[in-house]
Write a structure and sequence with these properties.
The structure is a single chain. The chain is mainly α. The chain has helices at residues 3-31, 35-61, 72-87, 90-114, 120-150. The chain has one domain (3-150): Ferritin (Up-down Bundle). The termini are far apart. 36% of the residues are buried. InterPro entries: CHP02284, DUF2383, Ferritin-like.
């Protein structure tokens, strides 16, 4: 596999998972029924949009085609989140599922960075964005724990 295809493959996985998160945050913001959470969800959706844009630029610069869609796992998680929110505490349901989405993205970034076969350009892009990914993860993890403790 060429450096270009390895870069494209590595980053397109991150792009697809980030798209999943962006789409889920946008949907949750529209449906959560809580102004504070909706604002938080829209802000994090914006971060995901920036991540997709940044990674897409690196893929294109390497001569690849950036991923235009999310993943099947992300679609299923989004569906499960909707069902969970409908059947129980809507706010907590969305926060819990979005935090799972953050776990998935952080794990994918960590794996890309740790993989010795990841090309330098892909690793550098992932490392550059990792603080934002971690920050979003931590916000949602802390929000989930606070909501669980308050219940």
């Amino acid at each position: 596999m060429s450096i270009q295809s390895k870069t494209e493959h590595s980053l397109n996985d991150l792009i697809a998972i980030s798209r999943d998160g962006k789409d889920f945050y946008e949907e949750a913001a529209a449906k959560v029924g809580d102004a504070e959470l909706a604002t938080l969800f829209r802000r994090i959706a914006g971060v995901k949009t920036d991540i997709v844009s940044s990674l897409s630029s690196v893929v294109a610069a390497a001569g690849g085609t950036p991923e235009q869609h999310g993943t099947m796992v992300g679609s299923m998680q989004q569906f499960y989140g909707k069902v969970r929110a409908t059947l129980g505490n809507t706010k907590y349901g969305y926060v819990a599922e979005l935090e799972e989405s953050e776990d998935r993205l952080l794990k994918a970034f960590d794996e890309t960075i740790a993989d010795q076969d990841t090309p330098a350009a892909a690793r550098e892009a992932a490392l550059r964005l990792l603080p934002e990914v971690r920050a979003c993860h931590d916000v949602m993890r802390n929000r989930k724990h606070a909501m669980k403790s308050a219940a």
